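Appendix B. Worked example

We walk through a single record from start to finish. Start with the input: the chain for Pur operon repressor, Paenibacillus sambharensis, length 275.
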Amino acid sequence: MKKLKRSARLVEMTQYLLSRPHTLISLTAFADRYQSAKSSISEDLAIIKEVFEGEGLGELHTLAGAAGGVRYIPKTDKQAALSTIQDICKQLEQPERVLAGGYLYMTDMIGQPSVMSDVGRIFATAFANRDIDVIMTVETKGIPLAYSTATFLNLPVVIVRRDNKVTEGSAVSINYVSGSNKRIQTMSLARRALKEQSRVLIIDDFMKAGGTVQGMIDLLTEFNATVAGVGVFVESGEVEIEERLLEDYVSLAKLTAVDMKTKHTTVVPGNYFYE
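Next comes the structure step. The output line below is what the pipeline stores for this chain.
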């Protein structure tokens, strides 16, 4: 790269960090990239760190020593995250979203990149300090959520299928009981998709009793993998505590009431905001 003026270097360096979250970048790499002295690079990083933290864009961690460098950690402060989720809750309360069985129509929101970006950043903030190797979700609506979260955590995504795909080779399949309707269903994961003893963050779009998430947890035991966390976009509050199959999870929104006759719903921020 040609030598840049400091103002241009700051812009390019900021973009470089934003596109490589949770990646350790050495001062030498920056010095070589911008043909600048390490002292100048350090001053630039101090400016970027101040702006990131002051504007709530995340943190810039510095590691000292020969093998050190800087690592950008995307984060959203709780107040900004709460404001975002409150807006989402208002949209989810629209009467036309009520579906049979007390579900909400969310596909249009999950298809909006800006909404998924906000949600992914919040999940990434919630699990930033966990030791995670991979993010897992079940097809299909959870996929955008998982990929958005993975973007901010810089991690790969593994997708659990409802049935085995020939193109994925040999797979592990299990039967699980759906927590909401008590039906026995099947899910499978290709053997090559997940390394043994991986630490996995599970992301799901909607949870009633937690049967689908519990199914993924059971599936992970077949890979000797560990659950590093569970994130749920919207949970149902109309499930008795004793019927809930999970206790340790993070939810961003909670459906607390549904009147099928009037189509009136109440959606509030989830447990992430009340820990």
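Two observations about the output. The mean pLDDT is 92. Residues 78-274 form a domain with the Rossmann fold fold (CATH 3.40.50.2020).
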